[in-house]
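Before relying on records like the one below, remember that each one covers exactly one chain. Contacts with other chains, cofactors or solvent are not represented anywhere in the record.
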Amino acid sequence: IGGEDVKKVKTATIKIPSGKKMKLKNSFGLDEIGLWASYGSYDEFKERFPEGEYSITLSPKKYGSTKVDMTHDFPPTPEITYPEDGATDVPLNITIRWEPVGNVDDLWVVVKGDNPELGEVELHFNVSATSTSLAIPSGVLLPNTQHELRLTAEISDGRDNDLVSSRVIRFTTGSE
């Protein structure tokens, strides 16, 4: 929920298909309110957020309400083939590889690592939805460091609702 008028909204009430409601108070006068949910399993997610009609009602009522039909047509979870989860002594000039993902709108690669001088470093790469690899040149990854690699496939339902599936692995680079 976003826009200049959102600052004037006192509450936003969300009702899910099971009938459960959640009321959010906008006591800080925020101009954007967003919710994200991450769960360990897809089954747990489906149980908590079933498919069906979700309604959002703003108060005062003059700011409106909307209904959204949520489906679980998530893209397949990407399969990273190199490096393997837990790999060590990975070269600094790595080519990350994965299985073809299928019919998706966007594909993202995010690599995180801790730099002793800069703190956590996070690199984002938007790659072609049909690609199956990404070459990381020398000088980008940190030597002797554990990195987290996230490959995210995204599809959009055309109504500003993006559905994503991600695979996360960790690997450790070797020395220079």
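Helices lie at 42-48.
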